[in-house]
Amino acid sequence: MLNRAARLVARSRRASTTGATSQEWKAAGLGAQWAPPETTLNEIVFVQAGMGCDQHGTAGASKAATRACRQAIEFNALPYMETLLRDRGYERGRGDMLLKVEIGVPEDLVDSVSVEDIRAMFPYGRMLPVEVRAGGLDFQSGRVVEALGDAADRAVVAVAAVTVGF
Fold it and tell me: One Pfam family name from the record (predicted)?
């Protein structure tokens, strides 16, 4: 059995299946980058939670997890972040902010979450290792849609906590 750090590293190397928004950010030259391993979050500026659901949770929990991250950030703006970081000597502004993401998904789906997909949900910043752990919810959706790949009557809910700072 892999220890927690090894699982985080293995998860970070999985192939990404990003959504339309992250493709738009990529085309615009945006996208969060992985922070160096020794990076620590010292000052917290913003914390937000989000929830995401995949009503056809047969392919793991990545879709629900990315939706949770998106919900956590999509109705928020940090207009002063650029000034705050530059005033403290960070030359890249928002590009230097740190992102800490914690995800809760049903226990049997923890290893199914692609942290590359999670990273792709953020347009800028330096991403600390994404922590995925048991939490969230799964339930019967009341239907099986074989045309969508459903093999069972299962929906998956993920919760995300996104912390921004430097």
Answer: Lin0512_fam
